[in-house]
Amino acid sequence: MEIKRIHDEDEAFQQLLTNRLRTFNDVHSLHHREIRNTDVPVVQLKVEQDGDMIAGLFGSVYWDWFDLDRLWVASEHVGAGLGSRLLEEGERLARELGATRVKLTTFSFQAKTFYERFGYEVAGVLHDYPPGSDYYMMTKQL
User: Fold this and answer.
1) What is the mean pLDDT of the chain?
2) Could you tell me which residues are beta bridge partners of residue 61?
3) Residue 95 CA to chain centroid, in angstroms?
4) Least enclosed by CB within 10 Å: which of 18, 67, 93, 105?
5) Residue 105's beta-bridge partner residues?
6) In this predicted model, what pLDDT tens digit does every residue of 72-126 receive, in sequence order?
């Protein structure tokens, strides 16, 4: 058997791999199988000023977890409390949707200390990813 390198990005190939992995997961995990046929609730929040978005949060709730995917505040508004307000409201809504825990990722140059102030703990770290920085997975009990 020969290993062939694909030089150009091939979306059909990528989708085939995704489908094969999902099929494997579905066979071995009831939770994966069930989530595929479910509308996963999302939490989406934004803050606008003069018609421009200056902060926002996005995450989804499944398996009793709030997967906090994105929290962003425009740099000129950092320190004004928008991130805190978004995080607290996002957690509140996630609890209403059945979440008992939160998971998120952040880099050392982003918001690790911010999340720690709200009770998040480091569950794992990749050092020097990217070079000179660290990448953290953080969790919290709601």
Assistant:
1) 95
2) 66
3) 16
4) 18
5) 137
6) 999 999 999 999 999 999 999 999 999 999 999 999 999 999 999 999 999 999 9
